[in-house]
Description:
This protein is about 80% helix and about 0% strand. By secondary structure, it is mainly α. The protein has two domains: about 5-55, no CATH class; about 90-254, no CATH class. The radius of gyration is 37 Å and the shape is rod-shaped.
Amino acid sequence: MIECDRLRSRALALAALPPGDPELDAANAHARTCPECAQAMREARRLLQLIDAELRPPSPPEAAVQRAEDAVLAELDREDRARPMSRWRTRLVLAASVLLAFATLSALSRQRAPDAESWIAAVAAALLAALLASLSSAGLPACLAANATSAALILVAGAGWGFFPLLGIKCVAIELFAATWPFAAAALSRGTVARPRAAGPAAALAAAGALAGQASLHLTCPAAHAFPHLLAFHLGGVMLASLAGALALRARAA
Length: 254
């Protein structure tokens, strides 16, 4: 049995209880038999309604809502217009990094092929590597195209025999080093170039960079006409770079 004095002193706290609360149900049952307690509960509920109305934030003016909506739509339109430009900027930076790798590695070597045919083949391979780097978002097709170009280059150059394993290790290292150039360009161009987020594009990007390294080796490698050497180390270096690019990305994601 609820005492009247206790109920009236706690009417506001009782009215704030959620529906179904045993203490609230007992207070309501007592109020039905006691007019003074019923009046106290009604006043407590009215006071809670006034407090709730004061605390509720006012609705924003319609003009302000419209201005905010217009600003959001304008920003979305700006992003849609900027997205194609960003894609072209990404492609140009990646292609330029591959060409820069080819030019740098070719220029640093003390030995370069003197014949025009070798230069034509090397420059063509480097240009194709730059194109494939710019299209690396295609993933596996771009990666396979880079490896196919590497194989075609050794078929063009391979006319002699010889393995030269110590020299081959150096050739593979050069190709792996060249494979890092487009990734470095992406890392240094934050906000302009998006780094690959899938194994396929990462493998394609690494393969394109390694192909540029092979193009420089076509001019600078002392065993550039030894078919077994080219098959094992020049083509093998591009294939290894492709695998390393894909696996490195997966390991980082894990």
